[in-house]
């Protein structure tokens, strides 16, 4: 017999969904749990329900109903579909391997820049360019997958301490399979870009892959040197992405490249933002970085100082955005730029205050880092309309 626990808002685990007469489900009366945290640790046993590093916080004054099912399996284990299980396991490992928060940033950034170029040249829009645009987004996702994949391959030991939920560190994806994936990403990305966007954009794309490679692999391992690591991340995610996508879009429309005020703004803004991400990404990883002698600003200067530094740099960014709207009214929409960036800055101040009140606990640091990424996404969402 096997007990499976899940909320009504989630899907029952696959092995709790019966597909043959050899399985029986017994509904056990819903239970009401009052707790502040619920977590389950993952295992590799296919007969148990697992959720990797899943933690669900529940407010103390509210109750949450959970449905508990008892599932009995009669007969041999061969009644389950092993192929389906392998596919589901690989799908989960593959998605974690891609680092979804970075994929969202890359996809939002490329879509925002393309949208801006089209808004500026609505008379040149052709539906025939849609497929080319989708190829470009896929190539960027491949480049993103290559860079984060290479990093995981060479950071297995560190990730077992800092990020044990990542698939290689958790044992859900072999190093050999990871190499196959990153090689596919590199070949597919370069092929798509060279075929659709010409030699200049291809050279920019290859430069991004090269910087992502030397960031992680020995003997270069530039991530060990804080300044070099910050510059690589800021260059790839800040300048190359924004400049490259906008340049490629204008070329596809038959236009030569020229800076517009909004594009110059977002390139500068996101380059600074990427620098902040590069600084704050090490905040949750101090324990593992110290163990493996990885030198970061967080290990040298302390978590509190780096968190305050990151918040300060972002506030300067937001003040710059508000100032640009005030002094360049012909280039930006004041009615959107000023209130939007004011609200985002206030949200950042509040989140920094929360971090201070919790005495920089690990959960609070993770929440702070996630909030910074949410601010990053928000900037790209409002960008086409500024």
TrEMBL record:
Residue stretches spanning the membrane: 129-154, 182-215, 227-247, 259-280, 301-326, 338-355, 367-385
Keywords in alphabetical order: Chloroplast, Membrane, Plastid, Transferase, Transit peptide, Transmembrane, Transmembrane helix
InterPro entries in UniProt: AtHST-like, UbiA_prenyltransferase, UbiA_sf
Region feature Disordered, mapped onto this chain: 37-56
Topology with respect to the bilayer: Multi-pass membrane protein
GO molecular function, a single term: prenyltransferase activity
Localization in the cell: Membrane; Plastid, Chloroplast
Gene Ontology CC annotation, any one: membrane
A Pfam family that the UniProt record links to this protein: UbiA
UniProt family annotation: Belongs to the UbiA prenyltransferase family.
PANTHER family reported for this sequence: HOMOGENTISATE SOLANESYLTRANSFERASE, CHLOROPLASTIC
Record protein name field: Uncharacterized protein
Species annotation: Coptis chinensis
């Amino acid at each position: 017999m096997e007990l499976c626990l899940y909320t009504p808002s989630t899907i029952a685990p696959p092995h709790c969904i019966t597909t043959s007469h050899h399985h029986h489900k017994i509904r056990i009366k819903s239970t009401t749990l009052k707790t502040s945290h619920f977590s389950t640790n993952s295992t590799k046993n296919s007969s148990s329900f697992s959720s990797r590093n899943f933690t669900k916080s529940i407010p103390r004054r509210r109750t949450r109903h959970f449905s508990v099912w008892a599932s009995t399996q009669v007969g041999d284990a061969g009644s389950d579909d092993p192929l389906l299980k392998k596919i589901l396991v690989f799908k989960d490992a593959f998605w974690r391997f891609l680092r979804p928060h970075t994929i969202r940033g890359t996809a939002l950034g490329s879509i925002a820049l393309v949208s801006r170029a089209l808004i500026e040249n609505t008379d040149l829009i052709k539906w025939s360019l849609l497929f080319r645009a989708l190829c470009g987004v896929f190539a960027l996702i491949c480049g993103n997958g290559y860079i984060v994949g290479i990093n995981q391959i060479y950071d297995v030991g560190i990730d077992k301490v800092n990020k044990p939920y990542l698939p290689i560190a958790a044992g859900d994806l072999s190093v050999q399979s990871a190499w196959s994936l990153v090689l596919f990403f590199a070949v597919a990305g370069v092929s798509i870009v060279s075929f659709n966007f010409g030699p200049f954009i291809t050279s920019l794309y290859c430069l991004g892959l090269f910087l992502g490679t030397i960031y992680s692999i020995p003997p270069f391992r530039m991530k060990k040197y804080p300044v070099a690591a910050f510059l690589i991340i800021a260059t790839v995610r800040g300048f190359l992405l924004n400049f490259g996508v906008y340049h490629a879009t204008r070329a596809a429309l038959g236009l030569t490249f020229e800076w517009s005020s909004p594009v110059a703004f977002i390139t500068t803004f996101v380059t600074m933002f990427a620098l902040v991400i590069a600084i704050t990404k090490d905040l949750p990883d101090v324990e593992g970085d110290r163990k493996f002698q990885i030198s970061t600003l967080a290990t040298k200067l302390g978590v509190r100082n780096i968190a305050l530094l990151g918040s300060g740099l972002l506030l300067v960014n937001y003040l710059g955005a508000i100032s640009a709207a005030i002094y360049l009214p012909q280039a930006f929409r004041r009615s959107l730029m000023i209130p939007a960036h004011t609200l985002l800055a206030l949200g950042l101040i509040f989140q920094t205050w929360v971090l201070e009140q919790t005495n920089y606990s690990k959960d609070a640091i993770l929440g702070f880092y996630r909030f910074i990424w949410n601010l990053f996404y928000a900037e790209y969402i409002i960008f086409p309309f500024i």
